[in-house]
Amino acid sequence: RERVRAMFYHAYEHYLESAFPYDELRPLTCDGQDTWGSFSLTLIDALDTLLILGNVSEFQRVVTVLQEGVDFDIDVNASVFETNIRVVGGLLSAHLLSKKAGVEVEAGWPCSGPLLRMAEEAARKLLPAFQTPTGMPYGTVNLLHGVNPGETPVTCTAGIGTFIVEFATLSHLTGDPVFEDVARKALKALWKNRSDIGLVGNHIDVLTAKWVAQDAGIGAGVDSYFEYLVKGAILLQDEELMSMFLEYNKAIKNYTKFDDWYLWVQMYKGTVSMPVFQSLEAYWPGLQSLIGDIDNAMRTFLNYYTVWKQFGGLPEFYNIPQGYTVDKREGYPLRPELIESAMYLYRATRDPTLLELGRDAVESIEKISKVDCGFATIKDLRDHRLDNRMESFFLAETVKYLYLLFDPDNFIHNDGSVFDVVITPYGECVLNAGGYVFNTEAHPIDPAALHCCRKRKEEQWEVEDLMREFYSLKKTKKFTLKRASNHGEGESVKIPEDASSEKGGKKRNSKKNSHSLLSCPSQSFNSKLAVLGQVFLDNS
Predict the structure, then answer these.
(1) Which sequence positions are flagged as catalytic?
(2) What pTM did the predictor assign?
(3) What angle in degrees, to the nearest 10, is found between the helix axes of 294-311 and 337-349?
(4) pLDDT tens column, 133-168
(5) Are 1 and 407 in contact (CB under 8 A)?
(6) Helices 178-192 & 164-174 angle (0-180, nearest 10)
(7) Are 94 and 48 spatial neighbours (Cβ–Cβ below 8 Å)?
(8) Annotation-wise, does 440 bind a ligand?
């Protein structure tokens, strides 16, 4: 853990010294470059990692720097996908963690605040991309002018289906449904255009809904679409999203899975098109753990770990039959996916093999990629040549998941036994109870926060109820929750009925039970959240 902390600061301090305010550090020349826009991206991406490492003073300083220095009114062509996961996701996560980090929050938080306004502003810049006949977004948008007239209508599947976590969070916090609406419409458009055998391809024309690249698999170009169906289902308690994923999961097992590897197949016929493992696919065991499929997850993870041990990293492409790298795809840009899966699986199993992977990762990265000014992308795992780039996800994801793997007592792993209660204009609100949902850039979203800012009229409390709450309770209370009796697979606790509004908009009774114990909301579908934040299916 301490070696991981030292890795973080070696990279972070050199970014500040040599590259800020550019997006990313160039570690071989000790300077910076803009890559995904011009947002000081590494600073936004590293912000919640600072808090996970316990550095509240630097978190507070960076929040101030970002408020003063980041401007989205710029004539820049930006990736809709990357801006969402890194900028919107990073700002939302930092906003929701800011009180924990000792930032002086404004009245009305978490339903308002400077970082939330920045996240909303960035997301609004992306909305023009969704104005297509299908509801599927363009891949690139100009932050000043919207979609360029000559913009290609071909977008990858992940670039269409990786918005629900950030956009639904934004809608719930701001009360503006437009974000969640466009994200859902895009998700459903992909679902509608799946093949007869239940698979989606790699790239689609967002104007005509015709598949341009018809390779189906779980890796690059598709990956986070599947991830967001599961995480969206958990975050929003949404049965429809989970059932979509489970249908895809059947087709993926039927057509792409061979001996615990996943290949690429033709989306209409199911015939193998590429017998290749991509490093981006290494998120899959972690995703399987979230639906409780631990045995399959571990078997696939161990396959991927053998590749790591062969090279000291995961090459971008690995030819499974030949057992070697693919030409021009021999690099490892310090990606987090295998470490991410190890972190999830270690939470589920406590298998020490997973800690060994973590140690191997620390040793490899330090030995091969550490340079005077940070950590450099490995251009070729065969001869350890380096590239002059340190991607922002190294600090956002790779270091964060490594640290969390080795830090079982981190607040992120909270099992719900400790939490904060905050008074908002919309009632009492539970925060920091755990169950965090990581976006695909490893920015943790507190799912409880989505219930803090109900702005629909029928769900607002009466003025008298609100005043009574303000006078009867202190502004913030801290509770320690005793473990309740076992309710099914995971230990959970009952929420008083008045702690969450019914859909029908019944008035809240704020007098009754205002001090009773809190618990997970009752689940509307067949999956239950265990205390570790994993979903177990009833029949598993």
Answers:
(1) 82, 223, 316, 337
(2) 0.85
(3) 140
(4) 999 999 999 999 999 999 999 999 999 999 999 999
(5) yes
(6) 150
(7) yes
(8) yes
